[in-house]
Design goal:
Largest sheet: 8 strands, antiparallel, barrel
Structural class: alpha+beta
Distance between the termini: 46 Å
Strand content: over 45%
Helix content: 10-25%
Oligomer: single chain
Length: 217
């Protein structure tokens, strides 16, 4: 009887450990719940395989971010934002700049370092990014503008698809309030410029963003 009682007590204790851990995780900020809030960023954008001297243009984005932290280390989420991108090229004395405005949605799988008790949580993430062009502004100046426009440049297509990878930190400011700092690189996969030269031109972007995310229980 003593052996049976001992076995029963041991099994009860083993069962209680994970149950207690799950309960604590649900009470812990950024553990098994959704956080959402505003996000803004700035960076540099360029388009690959353009003819001439391809320069970067300043880019910016503004939107809303969301993270679902499934457990202590893994999470899923993304952003929905309006993003200004584009290209700036010089060729044979002519400069052409095209700035599209995208509705962009990067999706991400997150890995968080450290544990729930840390005020600063480094992270890595990656995933696809989708883009829908809302508008576009084009500007051309210099000599031979008609030849330059016809042979080498063009307007952006309506849709874009790519991948985004990044790193950053989440800093706990208060209970269930996190400052998210991110450095992210976006690599397009589709030919986004409809140009007579028929080159395969992909969007490329390196940006820094900051967001203030609030936990929803």
């Amino acid at each position: 009887m003593k052996k049976i009682a001992l076995i029963a007590a041991t099994l009860t204790a083993l069962y209680a450990i994970p149950t207690h851990a799950q309960t604590e995780a649900k009470k812990t900020p950024n553990g098994q719940y959704v956080s959402i809030g505003p996000v803004a960023g700035v960076g540099l954008n360029w388009v690959g395989n353009m003819v001439g001297n391809n320069m970067t243009v300043m880019s910016g984005n503004l939107g809303i971010g969301l993270i679902y932290a499934r457990n202590e280390h893994w999470g899923w989420g993304g952003q929905l934002m309006v993003s200004s991108e584009g290209y700036d090229v010089k060729y044979n004395g002519t400069e052409v700049k095209a700035i599209p405005l995208y509705l962009r949605m990067p999706l991400r799988a997150y890995y968080f370092f450290g544990d729930y008790r840390n005020t600063i949580r480094p992270k890595l993430y990656a995933g696809p990014t989708l883009g829908l062009k809302l508008s576009e502004t084009d500007d051309m100046n210099g000599r031979n503008t008609e030849v330059m426009a016809y042979n080498n440049t063009g307007t952006f297509r309506t849709f874009d698809l790519g991948v985004n990878v990044g790193t950053g930190v989440n800093i706990k400011l208060a209970k269930a309030i996190w400052l998210n700092l991110d450095l992210v690189y976006n690599q397009g996969l589709l030919d986004v410029v409809d140009d007579p030269a028929d080159n395969y031109n992909t969007n490329q972007n390196l940006s820094f963003s900051a967001g203030l995310l609030f936990g929803l229980k």
